[in-house]
User: Fold these one by one.
Assistant:
Number 1:
Amino acid sequence: MRTPSASRPIHRPSRFLLLAASALVLAACSRPAPPEEPVRSVKLMTVGVGALQSQVEYAGEVRARVESRLGFRVAGKIVQRQAELGQRVKAGDVLAQLDPRDYQLAADSARAQLASATTQRDLAAADYKRYQTLKDQNFISGAELERRDATLKAAQATLDQARAQLSSQGNQAAYTRLVSDVSGVVTGIEAEPGQVVSAGTPVVRIAQDGPRDVVFAVPEDKVAQIAVGSDVAVRGWSGGAELAGKVREVAASADAATRTFQVKVAIEGKDAPALGATVYAQPKALGHAGVVAIKLPTSALRQEGQATAVWVYDAATSTVKSQVVQIATADGNDAVVAAGLTPGMQVVATGVHVLSPGQKVMIYQPKSNGAPAAKAQTAAGNVALPAAAAAPAPAATPVSAAPASK
């Protein structure tokens, strides 16, 4: 027997409503389609070859060829200092003075000992003369005369010792005055009145008159290229004529604090900068002027892991691809590319951080057609470094780096 609910027929409109509701529920649960990535416009530049313009330059200081640190030859307390910083002195000028009283007393004592020794020698000489007369008359033996002769010689030796002691003590007293033995300029004061100094302690530093050096420091990767006798151009910080110098000395070991190597360049001429002046030194051995190389602005570079890369534009597909490059050095505000690019390639110049490999792009077109073209970047894979072994680059006219057109 059928129940009333089982025998009730299902109407077709109800089925349609059920299907529609299920479709709406499924549509609400599904994710919306992602929006299409916009096509970005990029500025391009064409890689070309050209000459480097920058010159390696170091800041240096002008110093005297010979700089002496003068100190007292005896110990004592400084009671006066005549020398002042920056003062010009001549040979024989008194620079400082110690308290001389102890040394004067020692000299007086040596002088008294000399007088005593002189008296003893004179007495021994008189005795020897008297005994010589007695010996001539055969009143004494020869042995007695020899004893008197020995006494005279001992007295003479004591006199010589006292005389030398007095001379030494006189020198010690004179050493309490620090006298300049050269002409020059006082460049340092290292002790003040009232200070007790030992023998040899530097008190005054003097830059001697004569030849001057330009002193500067170079890093470890450049010092091997600088040889003694090589040319260096020197120019003053405040301007003036350029001076020619030659490397006179290269430090054999690095500075313990800065880990750089000190280089001394000899400069001649009456127009040499003043002592202590700041100058710029340009070693010719480190110059790359005229060497051809590829240069790119730093805005075209990006970091890809541990390597440096650029975006290369593919005109056939209007996409960009990543290209790893090797950077050799810097030329002003540009980076010199050692390898990875060849002339004629088109690379993205700006906005490299928003692109991805294979991304479709369009070339940026400036609104004004009268905008001047940017100056070309230069050079091929031959690196502007002495350590790089590269084939000579062909002479080429700098290529315009204006945005490329379709």
Note: The two ends are 85 Å apart (CA to CA).
Number 2:
Amino acid sequence: MPEARVIPIREVPPPEPPETEPVAAAGDWEESLAAALAFLRRRLTGDYEVDDFGFDPELSDAVIMAPFRALYERWFRVETRGLDNVPDEGGALVVANHSGTVPLDAIMTQLAILDHHPAHRHLRLLGADLVFQLPGIAPLARKLGTTLACQADAELLLGRGELAAVFPEGFKGIGKPFSERYKLQRFGRGGFVGSALRTGAPIVPCAIVGAEETYPMVGNLRSVARLFGLPYLPVTPTFPLLGPLGLVPLPSKWIIAFGEPVETASYGAAAADDPMLVFNLTDQVRESIQQALYTNLMQRRSVFF
């Protein structure tokens, strides 16, 4: 009896799964379009909220902050530390060093808390008078929630339970030469401490590393600055030599570190009138920031990488 011939069975590959990526992508595109149209409808119909300082949280988050997010994530590659020291709710005053010729450090600190803090809180900046005198800049600053750096506005925000930020060095900090980088300038008369004491809000020291290298200031055209009413007119390795290209910040590596809060509620509101206590707390906060700057500078492996 002849042996049966075995005919091999050709393996049939399983059917390929249907392509779902284009469908998902189309769904994402439709959702984005719907969100954009809804945003435009609210803006055109006036269906959005603005507080008495002019703060427009929707416009700030969706439009004004959008280009700065690319700087935060990809250009400066900001690393945040100690975000748990920023309270989830209630009034608090963030006090930070100021540097970098152009005050990008303030916006980066806003983004650090808005995008990366668990409570996604808005940080209300207390700005200098000049901010509200510059055409084009003043209305944008108001939309971002910035208000005047005075005790009345600071105490109103803190009393409402807002998270506010002050940069006590002011123009002395952002306008100092590169040779004095990471050396804190004078903190004024401690007005921010008085506001915290009157409202019982904790003070959160904040050290910002990286801003000093974005526009290294090697010179100052003081006479030209006075003509335009500016506190300084910087000369950097790229500006004004490269013209508009000199306005592009260098891609330094940033660290924003929030320190342990300094409690003020136990002192009572009347303590704001004690000049010695105000001086001591101001010095304590300043020293905390200076030490944090040194610590994080030593831990940063490279200026640009």
Note: Residues 1-12, 18-24 have pLDDT under 50 and may be disordered.
